Amino acid sequence: MLTKEMTVGQVLRSYPQTVQVFLELGMHCLGCPSSTMESIEGAALTHGQNADELVAKLNKAIAEV
Predict the structure, then answer these.
(1) CA dist., res. 64 & res. 51, Å (int)
(2) Which of 3, 23, 55, 64 is the most exposed, having the fewest neighbouring CB atoms within 10 Å of its CB?
(3) Torsion angle of alpha carbons 21, 52, 15, 6, nearest 10°?
């Protein structure tokens, strides 16, 4: 289960199927250096998203595999 404290980089490395969730929400800088160290919560705030909703969508994506 993913949490909003995890970094975007951790999530992408462990669960590549989450890329689509990030892209659908307009979070296109997945390969930028800051994404490797930024928390899901921080990325959500930067992109005007609700962190809890983002985590829920990411967890749904990893459960569907």
Answers:
(1) 20
(2) 64
(3) 130
